[in-house]
Amino acid sequence: MFQFCPPQAQFLTERISQNDLQWKSISQHSLIDIFYKAGKMPSVQQLKYLVALADSLSFSRAAAMTYVSQPTLSMQIKDLERRLNVVLFERSRSRVALTPLGEEIARKARGILAEVADIHALARTQGRGMGGTLRVGVVHTVGAYLLPLVVPALSATFPDMRFYIREELPNVLLTHLDAARHDIVLSPMPIVRTDLQTIPLYEEPLMVVMPRNHPLSSHEAIERKDLKGETILTMEPGHRLAEQVSELCEEVGASLSYDYEGTSLDTIRQMVAMGMGISIMPALYVRSEVRREQLVIARPFRGGAPSRLIGLSYRAGNPRVATIRKVADAMRSALHQDIEEVSVP
C-alpha cells in the first residue's frame, strides 16, 4: 500500500553549574553525562519537541509538527531547559534562535531519536518478513516521474509492505533521514556522508526542452555549442539539477535565467512554452510530461549527453538493511526491464 503525503565528534558545551558556566570540550557520549548531571533525564517526547523547534524555529509550526498545542510545547521546552540547567533557545517577540549549545544538543538529540526509531523498526519487523511500513523521502525532481514506473513492481514484490512517501527538498530530506522520519531517501547522487549508505538506482540523460517554434527544434540532436547565447531556465537553488545546469551554462556560454527559478519542473515547462527560454530536463520527466505536450519539444544531446545518477540512501545503522536492499533491487529490475530512457548500473 502506498501513501503519498555519528561518528566520534568533539563539541563545546556548558558545564552544568548554577553559579559558574564554563565552556569545555566533550566527547560523543557527553550528552548523556549532561542529562545525569542535571539530575533528570529528558523524555524521548521532549527530545522530539526540541528537534521540531530546532528545525522550524517557530513555536506554532513545531507544535503543529508534534501534534500538541503551542502552550504545551512551550512548557515542555522550558521544562527541558530546567532539567538540563541550560538555555537552548534565545527568544524574543520577533524570533526564536538556537544557542550554540542548543545546536549541539539538538544535533545529538536527532541521533538519539534515530536510534530509538531503529529499535522500534527492529521490533516491528521481528517475525514479519517483508511487511511493515517503509517511509520513503524523495526529491521533487524525481518522485512523480520515477514512482509510477516502479510502484507496480514494489506492490507485487512486497504485498504486505506499506510505503509512506513524502516529497521534499534535498537538504530537508537528509535532515529528516538523520532524524529517522524517513527510512530511505531517493535523490540525485553523490551524497558524501560516512554515516549513510547509498545504492545507485539508475542514470538518466538530460535533454534540451524548447518551444516547438524554436530554431533548434529542427535539429534531431543538440550540440553543446548550440546552446551558446541561449537563456536557460532551471530549478531554484538547493537542487542538484540546478547545479548541473549552472555548470553546463558556464561551460557552453549560455545565460542562466535569474529572473525566474522554478519550484517544479512543471512550472519551468510552462515558462518554456511561453517563450521565456529553454531548459535542460531529465529524461524520465520528458517521458512523462513533455512528449504529450503540444507547445514544447525535447531533443537529446549529440555525443556525450550530461546525465544524473539517482540513488537510494539510508542510515548505516538501520536494522532493516536486508529489506531496503531488496526494495532497491526491485526498483532496479523494473527500470532495467521496461524503461529504455535510463541505464541501470
From TrEMBL:
One of its GO terms (molecular function) is DNA-binding transcription factor activity. It holds the Pfam family HTH_1. SUPFAM superfamilies: Periplasmic binding protein-like II, Winged helix' DNA-binding domain. PROSITE patterns: HTH_LYSR. One of its GO terms (cellular component) is protein-DNA complex. Keywords: Activator, DNA-binding, Transcription, Transcription regulation. Residues 42-99 form the HTH lysR-type domain. It comes from the Bacteria. Belongs to the LysR transcriptional regulatory family. This is Hydrogen peroxide-inducible genes activator.
